[in-house]
Amino acid sequence: MGLFDKLKRGLAKTREVLAGGLRRALFLGRALDESLLADLERALLAGDVGPRTTTALIDEVRAAWKAKRLQRSEDVEPFLRERITERLRSGGNALVRAASGPTVILVCGVNGSGKTTSIGKLTKFLKRDGARVVLGAADTFRAAAVEQLTIWSERNGVEIVKQAQGADPAAVAFDAVTAGKARGADYVVIDTAGRLHTQTNLMQELEKIRRVVKKAVPDAPHETLLVIDATNGQNAIRQAEQFHKAVTVTGIFVTKLDGTAKGGALVAVRDTIGVPVKFVGTGEQIDDIEVFDPAAFAAALFD
Ligand SMILES: Nc1nc2c(ncn2[C@@H]2O[C@H](COP(=O)(O)OP(=O)(O)O)[C@@H](O)[C@H]2O)c(=O)[nH]1
Ligand SMILES: [Mg+2]
Q: pLDDT tens digits, residue range 138-152?
């Protein structure tokens, strides 16, 4: 099965809701007017595209209609698809690379969003190009988290830097980056906790990890990837805002796009924090990762 087919199959439920709603709003020969726009708005909201992005898209359709660039209801869907693709494309979707030395990737997100699994997939993806990867087990909150990352390191045949449960996560991150530098690694990928005693603790810890990592490599972390579970729908937007405020996210990894009806949330999250989606997860296996392709995603939402 091709990559695009996997994404397309994963988004079948989202498409049912979104494309189904759009088709009902945009039936052939229907006049393009405010009542059509209202139906369109409802379809986008039902597809979890989120209030802010929906309003922006409807405003774009309205402006194009008033300017007579859009005249027939059947032209609205291709127009929307193109606008969504543009929104997803801005900012670029490629992973940031360090100018020299290891590229440090800090991975954050709430508990259960798929951080550790996504790191396992990402490691294999990076190794495909022959890159040398070191993992840092900075989720020291639960013993199981370190064990889980250890399994992914073994599967990928890469080194892992870890300490006992309860160790200072920033110290583990520092050790991992230092080890990466010493071994001439291309990437150091740091796993973090998604839950602490309080949300404030969690955000402070992530900030501390960032600060301490800079002591080993001044321009690190080069990439702060936020892992977002697509099945969280509109809750994902609030999570993304909180993390972005605390750690300045540079890329989004959207997981569990397989089988959710809430795939539209990807557009909402991306739009809300203005950070590009860089990877998507389409299953629980090591190869269920895709470099995010805005046009393919938009196509999979509509056809
Ligand atoms: N279906 C599906 N499940 C995923 C995906 N990514 C992660 N998971 C599952 O989500 C659960 C939580 O993942 P985990 O990596 O432990 O999350 P963490 O707490 O953020 O580290 C596990 O059961 C994973 O197999 C994905 O893209 N699709
Ligand atoms: Mg984890």
A: 999 988 999 999 999
- 87 C-alpha to ligand 1 centroid (Å): 27
The DSSP line for 187-212 is: EEEEEE-S--SSHHHHHHHHHHHHHH
Distance 123 CA to ligand 1 centre (A): 15
The rounded distance, in Å, linking the Cα atoms of 218 and 195 is 27
| pLDDT 10s digits, 254-282 | 999 998 889 999 999 999 999 999 999 99
Burial class of residue 92 (count of CB atoms within 10 Å of its CB; 0-12, 13-18, 19+): exposed
Residue 268 alpha carbon to ligand 1 centre in Å: 21
The Å distance, Cα 300 to ligand 2 centre, comes to 29
What are the φ and ψ backbone dihedral angles of 124, each rounded to 5 degrees? -65, -40
Q: Which residues of 46-68 are buried (b: 16+ CB within 10 A; e: fewer)?
A: bbbbbeebbeebbebbeebbeee
Which atom of ligand 1 is closest in space to residue 259's alpha carbon? 1
Pocket of ligand 1 (CB under 6 A): 109, 111-118, 194, 227, 255-256, 258, 281-284, 288
Torsional class of 283: left (φ above 0), alpha (ψ -120 to 50), beta (otherwise): left
What does the buried/exposed string (b/e) look like for 134-163 if buried means 16 or more CB atoms within 10 Å of the residue's CB? Answer: bbbbbbbbeeebbebbeebbeebebbbbbb
Q: Whose CA is nearest to atom 19 of ligand 1?
A: 112
- For the cut 60, the answer to whether the pLDDT of residue 1 exceeds it is no
Residues with CB under 5 Å of ion ligand 2 are 115-116, 145
Q: How many residues does the chain have?
A: 303
Q: Are 278 and 254 in contact (CB under 8 A)?
A: no
